[in-house]
Amino acid sequence: MEGAPFRIRAPLQMMTKADIVREGARLGLDMGVSWSCYDPAPGGLHCGLCDSCRLRHKGFEDAGVPDPTAYAVTPPAP
Q1: Which of 11, 29, 41, 57 sits at a 20 to 30 Å CA gap from 17?
Q2: Per-residue pLDDT at 76 exceeds 90
Q3: DSSP notation for 22-50
Q4: Long-range contacts (CB closer than 8 Å, 24 or more residues apart) made by 29-34
């Protein structure tokens, strides 16, 4: 091995989606600028139908935080 040693940090790894949303809200982050969608719709919208969109939306619901995400279709319950 060459070079300086490195560490991998993954602070969100053990958090649920709701935990991540709560932490983002606590920090005052604009969660509407984050991206999760696997299959974006035209116009830069989240599709609302892929697993990632559905889990994202549920995370906001479970956290009790309004979901600021622009979806092409409102995600159905997972």
Answers
A1: 41
A2: no
A3: HHHHHTT--GGG----SSPBTTTBB-S-S
A4: 30/68, 31/60, 31/65, 31/68, 31/69, 32/68, 32/69, 32/70
